[in-house]
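Work Package 4 report. The design task specified in the project plan requires that, given a folded chain encoded as structure tokens, an amino acid be chosen for each position. We show below one input record used in the internal validation round.
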């Protein structure tokens, strides 16, 4: 049993959480269910409910009250069993603070004067308090203006970092609920918090960044609620009675890194026995509308892996250069013993140039952490309020030899559950897939960012739009992306314009003021549909529908009666390899062809969404609009000869994949697309728009062999060229590192950018052979299409219903042997080349194409 899209039910932000359960192994399919609720000493039940529903099932009882804790169990009936199953293991859901009136806490921070235009030393805040009786339950509800880490009686609360994350703060500020019962004791207690600037008031964005985007204060918002053994309660909330002092973090920034002076740290500062209270002064209380405090919809950012160096080199001048063997996103943790005042400087970069850190691609993200030691014995340190994208690190000032055990790279990202795996007989393609996974991990850091290393790290809407199908297979990202789409809707302009990136920050002169752009703005229509299909959550379609409709209506106004979106600023097929380094939008494909194609595609998907939501009039209206745009596209962009006005791979891929060509035109377009690919030696000639579509366009028009030629190419530009250069993540540019070993001279050259890794969706569906054909994978198509010399593949996906698997291998005579696993509660259809489709139910199945051919004959 699980609740909404959350890893657990503690502090849930809705009074009516939806329930999801997986069926007992081998049960086949569900015909009915019963939910049992234990609340306040009483038992309530739904009674038997006939039907197969088991994903995001409506809450069966009275709405939860704030703080209410309910134990939930379910049992099911199947067609084969007369009696119901056993009850599931108890799962607990506990509401957070659902009513703004529940909040007594106000923001509190340092009370001293600060220069808002300068770097400011972060504060710590604390409160001593006394508990009169033994504690049986305690909850901490906590957020901040900026970033926070809380300690109670010297112990860290929770494991998340960069909390409360990045949302559109004026409208939504997340708070998290922690069970801190075990942190408290009868008698004297202390709660304290480290504070950091983060996105709230730190310097962030392009060209030197902007400070104080959301405010100039740095403040904790915390409410500790304690229940004693006699049922009485006590509340310790941030208010004017708290105190503050500058902490040992001297400065901290997400781009810049962190400076920490251990000589200024009192290890017992968050305990009742803190050594020095003289420096602690009254806090400055602030204000926050409690209506803007919201519970999380997805998991937080946590450390998910630790990596030791694969190599350490000492330079002639005493520096140490570390290689971790993997481009990652995280921080270093060091342990050493050295005299007071010893200073370590830690610098980071993704690649080396001439044996040194290549920091030019970082632009003004200095990615430098500094530790000044206290001399009080062995010390372990890791920065708190920063994050870096790096494979290599340089440490200056290390006393003596540096061993692998003394330094660890800790990997951080939103702690989503892994749900998708793929491997095949080609090791280069396996590395490509791993690179996609690592780039998703590094860029799903509370929001879906473009890159994790330079002075950007923004939630670009176009990047996520093209990558969402891949993301939804690899990880359970529904809750995280639902939260981010909520902010996309909040940032949408009144006329329907969807920003280039969300949350919106200043981006002059190119990105501010905001203009509507195809492929980026279409995140409003296409990504909710993708999430609905992958996770079966109709609510995502419902909540984003006004945003999607406003976007399509805007484009309809811009296009006018011609139905051609052929005006305004467009990025086109961004980062087409033919575009010059300093003008990534100047690709081979007419950018207005791209815009009109996306207009038709979004209108079509808006019609599909309307139909799913029961809005029949809207469905008919937007389907008619999509037909009109398609007709206009054909008139303007398809020549009488059948060629397209932009004779480019992206143009043909768009026409084919988006269904914009007449039936009699598809074959010729596919042939021309294949001809263009082969004429260029099967090297990539597409950018952000064309790359996710080209393999499908080739496959669907009978050119699977050409799609494999494109996939397996190792010359630059290609998907595998970076692998031959040692890449461990997806690059932003096809030639971020050029064949001669030099860095691409463009101003944006990231070595960790997931967008061009959207091909992994084709790997999962076509090479691996698993695709959904009903929302949530309730019905699954198993259709592997071997090629490219690949002799076997194994694919697994944890659907909302359970595990779907397909492994296949080719044998002599061109036969395919396949093993299929269908989750309980689902059905599938197996399609092997040259054989009739086979319908299958839950369980394990084995197929041989030769046997199927014999049966069909």
């Amino acid at each position: 049993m699980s609740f909404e899209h959350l890893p657990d039910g503690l502090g849930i932000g809705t009074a009516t959480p939806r329930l999801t359960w997986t069926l007992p192994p081998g049960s086949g399919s569900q015909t009915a269910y019963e939910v049992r609720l234990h609340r306040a000493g009483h038992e309530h039940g739904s009674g038997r409910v006939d039907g197969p529903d088991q994903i995001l099932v409506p809450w069966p009882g009275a709405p939860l009250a704030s703080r209410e804790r309910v134990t939930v169990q379910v049992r099911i009936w199947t067609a084969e069993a007369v009696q119901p199953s056993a009850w599931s293991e108890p799962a607990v859901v506990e509401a957070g603070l659902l009513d703004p009136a529940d909040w007594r806490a106000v923001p509190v921070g340092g009370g001293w004067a600060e220069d808002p235009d300068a770097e400011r030393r972060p504060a710590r805040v604390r409160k001593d308090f006394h508990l009169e009786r033994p504690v049986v339950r305690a909850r901490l509800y906590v957020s901040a203006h900026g970033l926070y880490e809380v300690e109670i009686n010297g112990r860290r609360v929770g494991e998340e970092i960069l909390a409360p994350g990045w949302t559109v703060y004026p409208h939504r500020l997340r708070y998290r609920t922690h069970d801190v019962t075990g942190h408290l004791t009868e008698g004297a207690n202390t709660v304290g918090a480290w504070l950091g600037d983060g996105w709230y008031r730190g310097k962030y964005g392009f060209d030197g960044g902007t400070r104080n985007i959301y405010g100039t204060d740095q403040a904790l918002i915390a409410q500790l609620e304690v229940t004693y053994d006699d049922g009485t309660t006590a509340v310790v909330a941030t208010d004017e009675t708290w105190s503050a002092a500058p902490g040992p973090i001297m400065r901290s920034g997400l781009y810049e890194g962190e400076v920490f002076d251990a000589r200024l740290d009192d290890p017992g500062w968050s305990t009742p026995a803190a050594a020095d209270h003289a420096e602690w002064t009254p806090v400055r209380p602030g204000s926050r509308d409690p209506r803007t405090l919201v519970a999380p919809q997805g998991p937080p950012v946590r450390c998910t892996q630790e990596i030791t160096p694969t190599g350490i080199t000492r330079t002639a001048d005493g520096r140490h250069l570390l290689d971790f063997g993997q481009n990652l996103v995280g921080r270093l943790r060091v342990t050493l013993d050295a005299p007071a005042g010893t200073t370590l400087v830690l610098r980071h970069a993704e690649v080396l140039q001439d044996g040194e850190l290549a920091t030019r691609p970082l632009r003004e993200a200095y990615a430098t952490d500094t530790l000044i030691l206290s001399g009080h014995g062995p010390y372990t340190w890791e920065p708190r309020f920063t994050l870096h994208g790096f494979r290599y690190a340089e440490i200056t000032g290390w006393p003596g030899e540096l061993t692998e055990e003394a330094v660890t790279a800790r990997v951080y990202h939103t702690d989503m559950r892994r749900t998708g795996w793929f491997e095949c007989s080609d090791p280069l393609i396996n590395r490509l897939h791993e690179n996609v996974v690592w780039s998703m991990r590094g860029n799903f850091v509370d929001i879906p960012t473009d890159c994790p290393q330079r002075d950007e790290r923004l939630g670009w809407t176009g990047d996520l739009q093209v990558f969402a199908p891949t993301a939804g297979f690899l990880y359970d990202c529904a809750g995280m992306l639902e939260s981010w789409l909520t902010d996309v809707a909040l940032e949408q302009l009144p006329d329907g314009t969807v920003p280039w990136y969300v949350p919106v920050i200043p981006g002059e002169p190119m990105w501010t003021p905001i203009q509507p752009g195809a492929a980026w703005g279409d995140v409003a229509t296409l990504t909710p549909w993708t999430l609905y299909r992958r996770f079966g959550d109709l609510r995502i379609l419902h909540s984003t529908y006004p945003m999607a409709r406003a976007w399509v209506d805007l484009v309809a106004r811009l296009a006018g009666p011609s139905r051609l979106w052929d005006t305004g600023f467009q990025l086109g097929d961004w980062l087409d390899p033919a575009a010059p380094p300093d003008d990534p939008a100047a690709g081979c494909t007419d950018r207005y062809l791209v815009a009109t194609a996306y207009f038709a595609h979004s209108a079509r998907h808006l019609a599909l969404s309307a139909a799913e939501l029961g809005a029949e009039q809207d469905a008919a209206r937007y389907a008619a609009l999509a037909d009109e745009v398609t007709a206009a596209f054909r008139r303007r962009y398809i020549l009488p000869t059948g060629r397209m006005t932009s004779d480019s791979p992206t143009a043909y891929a768009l026409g084919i994949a988006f269904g914009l060509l007449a039936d009699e035109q598809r074959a010729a377009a596919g042939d021309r697309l294949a001809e263009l690919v082969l004429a260029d030696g099967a090297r990539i000639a597409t950018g952000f728009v064309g790359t996710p579509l080209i393999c499908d366009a080739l496959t669907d028009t009978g050119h699977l062999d050409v799609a494999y030629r494109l996939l397996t190419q190792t010359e630059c530009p290609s998907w595998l060229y970076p692998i031959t250069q040692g890449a461990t993540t997806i690059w932003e540019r096809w030639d971020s590192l050029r064949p001669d070993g030099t860095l691409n001279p463009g101003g944006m050259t990231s070595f960790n950018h997931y967008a061009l890794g959207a091909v992994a969706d084709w790997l999962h569906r076509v090479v691996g052979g698993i695709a959904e054909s009903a929302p949530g994978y309730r019905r699954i198509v198993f259709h592997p299409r071997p090629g490219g010399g690949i002799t076997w593949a194994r694919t697994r996906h944890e659907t909302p219903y359970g595990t779907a698997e397909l492994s296949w291998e080719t044998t002599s005579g061109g036969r395919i042997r396949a093993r299929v696993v269908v989750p309980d509660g689902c059905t599938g259809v197996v399609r092997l080349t040259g054989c009739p489709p086979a319908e299958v139910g839950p369980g394990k199945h084995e197929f041989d194409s030769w046997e199927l051919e014999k049966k069909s004959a």
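Residues 14 and 98 are 7 Å apart (CA to CA). Validation will be extended to a larger panel in the next phase.
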